[in-house]
Amino acid sequence: MTGINSYTDADFKRTIWSALRLLVIIVVVATPLVWWKAGWPSALLLLVGAVISGSGLFEWLRLMSAVMVRMDGGQTARPMAMVLVGFFVRLGIAVALLYVSLKYLNGSVYALAAGLALGVFALAVEGLRLMKAWTV
């Protein structure tokens, strides 16, 4: 890659998958530490937040891939209605998961917030890596 003008669909997909991989690595390292420090309910809340965050990144990948296929016009696109239904179903499941986990787990809400923030953090790290690659 030489700059933002050469950013392709494949680069976008690679960035999202790298962010998801980084999220998983952080969760694998952080969960035992949170369990040790704050107990299993907090560790489970961290996992719930990370799953919601990771599913959001994955859903963003699906939405943007569907939009990009339509914009390019070269391939046959999946029906946008199915992609949007999947998005709203995931959103509903995320809300239900948040509600149930907050109601029945007496762990730290900060662990849940940290799990939810991991997706943004991982995406920011990948964005910084892209900027570094463009400037070199």
UniProtKB/TrEMBL annotation:
One of its GO terms (cellular component) is plasma membrane. It comes from the Bacteria. It is a multi-pass membrane protein. The chain crosses the membrane at residues 16-36, 42-61, 81-102, 108-128. Keywords: Cell membrane, Membrane, Transmembrane, Transmembrane helix. Pfam families: ATP-synt_I. It is found in: Cell membrane. This is ATP synthase I subunit. It comes from Edaphobacter dinghuensis.
